[in-house]
Amino acid sequence: MRIKDYSEMNLQDLDVMREIGSIGTGHAATSLSQMLQKEVRITIPQVKILGYDEAIEAIGGNIEEIVGATLVKMDGDLNGLMLFLFNLEFANTIFDKMMGISYAGFEQMDAMAHSALTEIGNIIICSYVNAFTELVDMNISLSVPSAAVNMLGAILTVPIAEYGYETDKLMYCSADFVIDGKTYNDWLLMLPDIASLNRILEKLGVG
Amino acid sequence: MKLTRGQGEIITYALGSCIGIAFYDPVLKLGALLHIMLPVRQNKDDANILKYADTGLAETIRKLTAFGMVKSRAIVKIAGGAKMFEISGNANFGNIGERNAQTVRQILQRDGFHIRAEDCGANYARTMSLDVATGDVVIKTFGHPEKHL
């Protein structure tokens, strides 16, 4: 394996991952747009290799902030995790556009609302992964989505603990969604394990 | 790992699968709070010893002993070790919290520390604080009442 830690990725590797992120996020935005019956634009995606503290800062800065998250595990030619994070503002936009309701806080949401958010996270993740698998010609199976509403810091430690023996860093692909002229941070973390990252880069000819 | 003496509060935020371990010597009013993420340091070259239960606990106990902590007086409380995501059909995923808790308990028992109270497991994050004037440990969570250990 050429790369043993996310931080060993060079500019060309990052460029390739940014391209993948761009295609994936583009498809995710299309799905979101179909669900909301609204135009959804995306900003130019960024790929960053961040440590835990830096990732918290990049996402919102408050470790105790309550966020919603959907997590899907990838298996097959590629192993890793997909994590989609959203804040209350994003959740309310979705609820408002789809059902005409909004909530004052995550604690007010009932099981139905949680289930809706899990599915939206799942659809966004699946369209991302589908676009990506077509590009790299890999066979990836996705787990059933799992959702949590809890402190940002604790949710971000899930992938860090999962790969804690391999790396201290996370690869963080992000682009913002623009809905009705308003920008929402899109926190979509694609986290291949190190062996899979090498395989992706090899497949795309930069290994 | 944070350590202080006399008065003040030490806090560790958003423990998910991680474990917070509070040590307190009531006579010296000496307290420490350690936040570990994984059970065992596998790579001996890894300088980040406080990330792991085995090396982190050893270092914390060493420091506290140097500050005069007496083992028989030490009050130890632990919290965390949650499973944030449950993936159906994949029971092994996210078990790291449970493994962390087991390892911490084993090490403390081996080293002769008695765990006075604990709040581990379930599926939510915890913020843990230790008041070194009183030894009071407070657990704050989202959607659950505040708990004193």
How do the strands and helices of this protein lay out in sequence?
The complex is a heterodimer of chains A (207) and B (149).
Chain A: H1 11-36, E1 40-42, E2 46-50, H2 52-59, E3 66-76, E4 80-86, H3 88-99, H4 111-136, E5 140-142, E6 146-151, H5 152-162, E7 170-179, E8 182-192, H6 194-203
Antiparallel strand pairs in A: 1-7, 2-7, 3-4, 3-5, 3-6, 4-8, 7-8
Chain B: E1 2-5, E2 9-15, E3 19-25, E4 30-36, H1 53-66, E5 75-80, H2 96-110, E6 115-120, E7 126-131, E8 137-140, E9 147-148
Parallel strand pairs in B: 5-6
Antiparallel strand pairs in B: 1-4, 2-7, 3-4, 3-5, 7-8, 8-9
Which key phrases capture this entry?
heterodimer, A: 207 residues, alpha+beta, Chemotaxis protein chec, 8-stranded antiparallel beta sheet, 8 strands, 27% strand, globular, B: 149 residues, 60s Ribosomal Protein L30, Chain: A, 5-stranded mixed beta sheet, 9 strands, 19% helix
Overview of this structure, please?
- Chain A is of the alpha+beta class and 207 residues long.
- Chain A has a single domain (6-203), classed as Chemotaxis protein chec (3-Layer(aba) Sandwich).
- In chain A, 45% of the residues lie in helices and 27% in strands.
- Chain A is built from six helices and eight strands.
- Chain A has helices at 11-36, 52-59, 88-99, 111-136, 152-162, 194-203; strands spanning 40-42, 46-50, 66-76, 80-86, 140-142, 146-151, 170-179, 182-192.
- In chain A, strands 1, 2, 3, 4, 5, 6, 7 and 8 form an eight-stranded antiparallel beta sheet that branches.
- In chain A, a hairpin with a 2-residue loop joins strand 7 (170-179) and strand 8.
- The N and C termini of chain A lie close together (9 Å).
- The model of chain A has no long low-confidence stretch (mean pLDDT 87).
- Chain B is an alpha+beta fold.
- Chain B has a single domain, classed as 2-Layer Sandwich (60s Ribosomal Protein L30, Chain: A).
- Chain B has helices at 53-66, 96-110; strands spanning 2-5, 9-15, 19-25, 30-36, 75-80, 115-120, 126-131, 137-140, 147-148.
- The longest helix of chain B is centred in the C-terminal third of the chain and has 15 residues, at 96-110.
- Chain B is globular.
- The model of chain B has no long low-confidence stretch (mean pLDDT 94).
- At the A-B interface, strand 3, strand 6 and helix 5 of A face strand 2 of B.
